[in-house]
Specification:
Elements: H1 2-8, H2 15-27, E1 31-38, E2 41-51, E3 59-67, H3 76-90, E4 96-98, H4 105-114
Parallel strand pairs: 3-4
Antiparallel strand pairs: 1-2, 2-3
């Protein structure tokens, strides 16, 4: 599932990196995730973290969300977002946010129904 997610965003990782990431997810008390299953098959994943915020309580950042192509349109992404939102409420976080690519029109159609785009633009400063 994670390989499909990385392929969707045209990002390649060596096999060793997937093992490292899986171990970090399993052993961390700061990185969380949920999986969605249908008939015993994993069809969606999400990863999230809580970040400190200067102005209010921790905020929840939904870092990754991916649904298998065969399960899209079944409400899986919405259910995963709602599950993360509940975890954020349980944590007493001040909010939940995420990012997506501007050309990810399918996902944005859902996001526009359940959240508010506040106009921020992301910049990435590359080291090296």
């Amino acid at each position: 599932m994670v390989r499909s997610y990385k392929t969707f965003y045209e990002t390649e990782l060596p096999d060793s990196k997937y093992e490292e990431i899986w171990n970090r997810l399993l052993s961390s008390h700061r990185i969380f995730g949920f999986g969605a299953h249908l008939h015993g098959n994993l069809i969606g994943i999400t990863h999230y973290v809580f970040q400190p915020n200067i102005w209010k309580e921790d905020v929840c950042y939904l870092q990754d969300l991916f649904v298998d192509e065969t399960a899209r349109g079944l409400g899986v992404a919405r259910a995963l977002i709602e599950r993360v939102a509940q975890a954020a409420r349980d944590h007493a976080a001040s909010g939940l946010y995420w990012q997506t690519h501007k050309d990810n029109f399918t996902a944005r159609a859902l996001y526009d129904k359940i959240a508010h785009h506040k106009g921020f633009i992301r910049y990435d400063y590359t080291f090296g």
